[in-house]
Recover the amino acids of this structure.
């Protein structure tokens, strides 16, 4: 085997390693982003508005804007955002 061919084979092996490291880095980065999102959702946020539904008062999730959140729910059933109900008069209604 010529020295050039030998060198090219070594470079090829190293390039494969770099590619694998790059893929691993991307996976770790995605995992960290996901953890960060989950952590943010655990910080309770107050529902912003409510209206009177057919059977109960319904609220809007401040994170995903879905507006069928049932009064007193601990989490938004759509995006998983933790909810803080606080004092009733602090919630802005638009009925
Ligand atoms: Zn939501």
């Amino acid at each position: 085997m010529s020295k050039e061919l030998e060198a090219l084979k070594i470079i090829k092996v190293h390039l494969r390693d770099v590619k694998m490291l790059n893929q691993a880095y991307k996976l770790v980065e995605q995992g960290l982003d996901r953890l960060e999102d989950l952590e943010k959702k655990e910080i309770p946020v107050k529902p912003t508005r409510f209206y009177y539904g057919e059977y109960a008062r319904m609220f809007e999730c401040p994170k995903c804007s879905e507006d069928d959140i049932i009064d007193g729910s601990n989490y938004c059933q759509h995006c998983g955002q933790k909810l803080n109900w606080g004092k009733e008069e602090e919630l802005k209604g638009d009925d």
Remarks:
- The chain is about 40% helix and 10% strand.
- The mean pLDDT is 89.
- The longest strand covers residues 49-52.
- Residues 42-95 form one domain.
